[in-house]
Amino acid sequence: MVKYLSIDTTKSGTMLLPIFNETMVKLIDENTIYLGFGDFLFQCVNANQALVDSINNALSVAAELPSTKAVSKVGIPNKVRIVGPILER
What we know:
The chain is of the alpha+beta class.
């Protein structure tokens, strides 16, 4: 069963993104994060390491969830906003 990461964005609403084994998160700068499951770039406001840590935590939680619970929600740190995807390959 596929599991999903739930990310609240200000432009696109709540997005459900499939999680794959090779999922990685990278902080590009305060305006951009890279999510390596499907090669998404997200436009952000005040992105920081706390956001990356929160996404990694949600990925860890998803890995431990039983197959009947397919969604892991990302907690967005204070003063950080994820606007929405800016590139999908």
